[in-house]
Specification:
With 528 residues, the chain is α/β, with parallel strands linked by helices. The chain folds into two domains: 4-240, 3-Layer(aba) Sandwich (Rossmann fold); 261-407 and 417-521, Ribokinase (UDP-N-acetylmuramoyl-L-alanine:D-glutamate ligase, 3-Layer(aba) Sandwich), CATH 3.40.1190.20. The protein has 17 helices and 19 strands. Helix 9 links the parallel strand 12 (290-296) and strand 13. Helix 2 (25-46) crosses helix 3 (67-82), helix 3 packs parallel to helix 4 (101-112) and helix 10 runs parallel beside helix 11 (351-363). The protein is elongated and about 80 Å long. The model has no long low-confidence stretch (mean pLDDT 93).
């Protein structure tokens, strides 16, 4: 199985599928059933984020005439199989006349179950009637990657109605939200989650369309094997959301804590002690053999009880938070035994402290992760004074921090393509990093790899500190594989977030609860 999959334009995807299914219509039908079944399974799982589906759930399917309609109908059937009391309403945009035989067969099977009502033709009256019902799920299977604007009637009317009048707790799009393609029409269906089946389409990763695509779930249908070559430098990829699972195997019987790295963490301040703690806990949860946490003054005494597995040590600091002059000597002494170092979470950074952190980056030659307070333009500039033999520098900004280090702090300065801008930035500054967001971007300065796991549950203080600790902890275990450390940490962190949301929702949780889901994510069966 590949560990990453190329992201294609809709035109490229059509050509690829045409070649793949040439002369074998049964293979295309088989792929439709696999996609629809997988979408249904994902919907059942993802709906847990807002509470489990009721036994008598109401499902609305908006169906066009292509295979996306078939995917949506099969997905609805999978939901109905799990919830036998459910009721399905199907709106056929163009009636039954234009349906392919494969899609018509799926519809007939759904109708024969006795739990499906079909609206053959769209009208304002139909919309008014449907608006009186609160649906649990709406599945958009109107249009797919073959869409070209303009959005003609009745599709424009249905999408407009769905965005304005439809009452649905969970809105799913098959492959692409209707109205979105290589060229975009208007309106575009607004989804909570887009299930990208078989091939992830490039329009779903355009920041401009995030409100329409919602979150993106990639569903592997086995389209890309050893024979598929998409190795161009500028190609974009989506990571297998279960990439991190290779870390879940049996450890060798003859093993020792020193086999799993020694991470040094320089973090925390009087105002932000929790950042140091969460970074340390993230590293410990990532399986790091030894963790030494350097925190200001006596802060270590307050934190040690919360993470006794780590070795807590003080670094010299004045009462006003300014680092003492021997800060660098102390950090250097501990770094001699470290296989990686994390600098930044919760640090108090002002002019003098900034100068010492710049020196740390130049003079302490250990693979280094810079996060949070250490993401400052001067610190990034100091990387250029560091010898290549010193080991890689990894950075972990969110978009606001990326704006800061790239000098784009004016909110009027829109970054049209953050992923490409981040790739170019990493290339110029000889760094490897992850740009955190609804879809996170990993880059070594030449490639772009996306991770789409995780979600809004991560939008709270501290989750980034946990991720930084994971990245650094995994890097400490294998300093020669910095990109692997990012892939493992980001996909694992995202899967833990999904697990947390399914268990407790998005709202009534704390960041540290994420830590309880790393082992669950690692041991749960893959979603696809």
């Amino acid at each position: 199985m590949p560990h990453k999959y190329p992201i294609l334009s809709c035109a490229e995807a059509r050509d690829y599928e045409k070649k793949r299914f040439a002369g074998d219509p049964d293979a295309a039908v088989e792929a439709m059933h696999a996609a629809g079944s997988a979408i249904g399974k994902h919907i059942l799982s993802d709906f847990r984020e807002i509470g489990g589906l009721p036994a008598a759930c109401r499902v609305l399917v908006l169906a066009g005439k292509g295979n996306n309609a078939g995917d949506a109908l099969i997905a609805a059937g999978a939901v109905a199989a799990a919830k036998p009391e459910s009721r399905i309403t199907v709106v056929l945009a163009e009636g039954t006349g234009g349906l392919s035989s494969a899609v018509a067969n799926v519809l007939d099977k759904l109708k024969s179950s006795g739990s499906c009502a079909v609206q053959d033709n769209w009208s304002a009256a139909v919309g008014k009637e449907l608006a009186q019902t609160e649906f649990d799920i709406c599945i958009d299977g109107l249009l797919g990657m073959g869409f070209r604007p303009p959005l003609r009637a009745p599709y424009d009317e249905i999408v407009d109605w769905a965005n304005v009048a439809l009452r649905a707790r969970f809105r799913a799009a098959v492959d692409l939200p209707s109205g979105l393609g290589d060229e975009t029409g208007f309106p575009i269906f607004h989804a909570d989650i887009t299930y990208a089946t078989g091939i992830a389409k490039r329009p779903c990763f355009n920041e401009i369309h995030r409100a329409s695509t919602g979150r993106v779930r990639f569903i592997d249908l086995g389209f890309f094997g050893k024979g598929a070559d998409f190795s161009e430098r500028d190609r974009e990829y989506i990571l297998d959301p279960g990439y991190f699972r290779r870390r879940g195997g049996m450890r060798p019987v003859e093993t020792h804590k020193s086999d799993y790295g020694h991470l040094l963490i320089v973090a925390g301040s009087a105002g932000m002690p929790g950042a140091a703690l969460m970074a340390t806990l993230g590293a410990l949860k990532a399986g790091t053999g030894l963790v030494t946490a350097l925190t200001p003054g006596t802060l270590n005494l307050r934190l040690a009880a919360a993470a006794p597995e780590a070795m807590w040590q003080p670094f010299p600091v004045r009462p006003d938070g300014i680092f003492e002059t021997d800060f660098l000597r102390v950090v250097g002494a501990f770094a001699k035994n470290a296989s990686a170092i994390l600098v930044g979470p919760g640090l108090f950074v002002e002019r003098h402290n900034l100068y010492l952190i710049c020196r740390l980056v130049r003079e302490i030659h250990v693979p280094t992760v810079l996060d949070a307070s250490a993401l400052a333009p001067d610190i990034i500039a100091s990387i250029h004074g560091r010898p290549e033999s010193a080991g890689p520098i990894l950075i972990t900004p969110h978009l606001g921090e990326f704006r800061r280090i790239s000098g784009r702090t004016d909110p009027k300065h829109r970054i049209d393509n953050p992923a490409a801008a981040f790739r170019d930035y990493c290339g110029r500054h000889h760094t490897i990093g992850v740009l955190k967001g609804p879809v996170s971007t990993i880059s070594d300065g030449s490639s772009i790899e996306y991770s789409a796991s995780g979600g809004p549950v991560l939008a709270r203080g501290g989750t980034g500190d946990i991720l930084a600790g994971m990245v650094a902890g995994i890097l400490a275990q294998n300093p020669a594989q910095p990109v692997e450390a990012l892939r493992d940490a980001v996909t694992w962190h995202g899967a833990a977030a999904d697990s947390l949301a399914r268990a407790h929702g998005h709202h009534g949780v704390r960041s540290t609860q994420l830590l309880d889901h790393f082992d669950r994510a690692l041991r749960e069966p893959a979603a696809n």
